């Protein structure tokens, strides 16, 4: 390990709270760990800045043990990709292999991570680094939710799905993936700035909240009076409430985010008259019941451009404040990435 430095940069969550008000700390003197038995050292290239990462910094995301235990002082970042640069005893992954490390406790916002070799997903040659860095959170959420929709609703009779936050990276990927399955999407966005982009991407219909006062009425008009067979919501509050009311009889609502911070309200009559189903979707729980081949399925879709993540802009770890400001920018057109080894 003579060519590997002893110190590295790591973006740490020093305290929980507003990420733009001093909760983050760039440690330029963090130790580079050494791999133990069956482990590898990965030099990170790109790491994501996801909404769940923002909630982690705020101290409200339940998927990170340190948040649940109220113990700040750890390196943030849930996903990214890099290259194996050293092996521990018994590790079979070769040095030079591009991988996505599946990190159980965050830690992607640093230049080097140690991870069990068994928890590394090799990246195919046909997938670029920036796309591979986004393997887990968004693509698997898209696949998981669409699987649930196809399993629990009558999509053959009514192929219409309504989704909120459609301009997000996940929303754009869902448009592509749904189209590949023969499903039709109604995409709810805040402003008209990205309407044409989403249509070019494959969106069947786009509802602009700034222009449309009655979302359920518009959805029923688009679907010929049926309503949407499924609603996929990342917002909650008034927007989530509107898409619940847009559901067809026996429709399915999946809540997977809470961008508004407000609860979705459901009319009791929709439960016992329309017999809709309302529940949540969390990829961390869904993935625990999937085969390892699901990762290769995503990579294949990326290679074929059937579901390809877009990037808004990349930043170095030193530019973390700029990165978070960009994350909060409205009408963002892709993922914010940290170029960790820049």
In short:
The protein has 342 residues and is α/β, with parallel strands linked by helices. It has helices at residues 51-58, 65-68, 129-132, 137-152, 169-180, 195-201, 215-222, 237-244, 268-272, 283-286, 293-303, 320-327, and strands at residues 7-13, 24-31, 39-49, 74-75, 80-87, 98-101, 112-116, 120-122, 160-163, 184-189, 205-208, 228-233, 247-255, 277-280, 311-315, 335-339. The chain is globular and about 65 Å long.
Reconstruct the topology from this structure.
Blueprint: E1 7-13, E2 24-31, E3 39-49, H1 51-58, H2 65-68, E4 74-75, E5 80-87, E6 98-101, E7 112-116, E8 120-122, H3 129-132, H4 137-152, E9 160-163, H5 169-180, E10 184-189, H6 195-201, E11 205-208, H7 215-222, E12 228-233, H8 237-244, E13 247-255, H9 268-272, E14 277-280, H10 283-286, H11 293-303, E15 311-315, H12 320-327, E16 335-339
Parallel strand pairs: 9-10, 9-12, 10-11, 12-13, 13-14, 15-16
Antiparallel strand pairs: 1-2, 1-4, 3-5, 3-7, 3-16, 5-6, 6-8
Polypeptide structure, described:
Keywords: NADP, Oxidoreductase. Residues 22-338 form the Enoyl reductase (ER) domain. This is Enoyl reductase (ER) domain-containing protein. Pfam families: ADH_N, ADH_zinc_N. This protein has helices at 51-58, 65-68, 129-132, 137-152, 169-180, 195-201, 215-222, 237-244, 268-272, 283-286, 293-303, 320-327; strands spanning 7-13, 24-31, 39-49, 74-75, 80-87, 98-101, 112-116, 120-122, 160-163, 184-189, 205-208, 228-233, 247-255, 277-280, 311-315, 335-339. With 342 residues, it is of the alpha/beta class. The protein folds into two domains: 7-134 and 309-339, Medium-chain alcohol dehydrogenases, catalytic domain (Quinone Oxidoreductase, Chain A, domain 1); 143-284, Rossmann fold, CATH 3.40.50.720. Helix 6 (195-201) links the parallel strand 10 (184-189) and strand 11 (205-208). Helix 4 packs across helix 5 (169-180). The longest helix has 16 residues, at 137-152. The chain is globular and about 65 Å long. The protein starts with 6 loop residues before the first strand and ends with a strand.
